[in-house]
């Protein structure tokens, strides 16, 4: 009986902690959004953050995109040729990348490469009192430090998703056309015939934008609220990667259902 | 309405402050006239740093009045609080320099954020402040290349960038060798006169404090228990003051954290954490 009560009490306490954290994150999100227009005017700050988060993620995005595309081509060809439709490889690869893999994998990689770095940086700035010093100099740390990093994530991720998908298509072309020997004209024409700009490309971009908001917010939130110790910053960095990844996959399911349900 | 010049710069009346269910300050009264260098001393956790937080508007008192230059700090909204903070400077314990900016850019930061001065003027002002702390030659270094004492001097140059009326120093001597501590001490004194500031130091360092402070207050159990000049501190035979000034481990302030009787815990009680 005591065991049951302890269990229920623990469950309730955990639920309250999660709710309190969500409340804190919502308030923080509002504060960041309210300051975002002010930060956006500081174009130099924004460019610097886009460089650190976005441009510096290019290598991992391009290389991963290439390999994902190459694997898709090998696996796709293997299945499609059983049905005599190997020419449809271009459609298969492009649709998979543009609708799903581009935004999702780019977001997962972005959370691991840039999100974790943003969390660690803001967390250490807090631990070393740099944020407090800024605040005492009458400079709002949310406007100066947090909002530009959030905006940079929102701006970078759709572009990175496009680059990921493009690299994937090139990878699939190299394997499918150059290596396996599918007709190049069929590869491209199938692709251009089946990919719809609004339905596939814009929806994919919209997904990437939503993931950018989620990963950006989680990264700055965890950093800003990290305990000012080594364990605190380490824990916050881990949480950024774990919570971002789970959020991206959950949001992807919800968005996919909303976008593509009932189409076929 | 501007405050009359002879009005005190800082006035705290019956201030109570606490966090996490613990009352840190309990009925604290303190008045600081303009131009004074006041040292606030007390054991670790006695509420010295909380006091700085209250004056800078980073902490809000549970009750009582915290006035700086006639402004009730706790009741100021965002813009007004920032307007007041522009006239305050704070030196953090380990400097809190921005690690992604050079020494020059750290000192330039307040000018870039708070003024529209042309680049040439900012350059001259930064060099002037760096010269004041003797580190003009280090302008191009990164904070990671500085020693602890140098980092604190750069942070001091940054803190006085906008010529504040009031300077806070949070443990300015902690972790410094005697020469660096002496340099910081002399700078605090010199800048206070040169820029017509009022300075409030929170510190444990009795030697440096005796050398530079005009007045010393000691906080214990949430309130000011002693208020004296350095001369009075030197000649005092008060046991509490002697324990503090001479660094005696035991005295009116006990060495032991409160615990259950030692013998009882060793012999009878098997719970190590009891």
Describe this structure in words.
The complex is a heterodimer of chains A (264) and B (274). Helix content of chain A is 87%, strand content 0%. Chain A has one domain. With 264 residues, chain A is mainly α. In chain B, the strands form 2 sheets. A 6-stranded mixed beta sheet of chain B has the order 6-7-8-3-9-10, sandwiched between helices. A 4-stranded antiparallel beta sheet of chain B has the order 2-1-4-5, covered by helices on one side. The model of chain B has no long low-confidence stretch (mean pLDDT 87). The relative contact order of chain B is 0.15. Chain B starts with 9 loop residues before the first strand and ends in a 7-residue tail after the last helix. With 274 residues, chain B is an alpha/beta fold. Chain B contains 10 helices and 10 strands. In chain B, α3 runs parallel beside α5 and α6 packs parallel to α7.
Chart the SSEs and their pairings.
The complex is a heterodimer of chains A (264) and B (274).
Chain A: H1 2-41, H2 43-53, H3 58-80, H4 89-127, H5 130-136, H6 141-180, H7 184-194, H8 197-224, H9 230-260
Chain B: E1 10-19, E2 22-32, E3 37-41, H1 48-55, E4 63-68, E5 71-72, H2 78-85, E6 88-91, H3 103-114, H4 119-132, H5 148-159, E7 166-170, H6 178-194, E8 198-202, H7 206-212, E9 215-220, E10 223-228, H8 230-235, H9 239-246, H10 262-267
Parallel strand pairs in B: 3-8, 3-9, 6-7, 7-8
Antiparallel strand pairs in B: 1-2, 1-4, 4-5, 9-10
Determine the oligomeric state from the structure. heterodimer
Query: What would you call the structural class of chain A?
Result: mainly alpha
The string of secondary-structure elements of chain A, in order, is HHHHHHHHH
The main β sheet of chain A shows up as: none
Helix content of chain A: over 70%
C-alpha termini separation of chain B: 58 Å
pLDDT averaged over residues of chain A: 93
Radius of gyration of chain B (CA) equals 21 Å
> In this structure, how is the largest beta sheet of chain B organized?
6 strands, mixed
So how many helices of chain A? 9
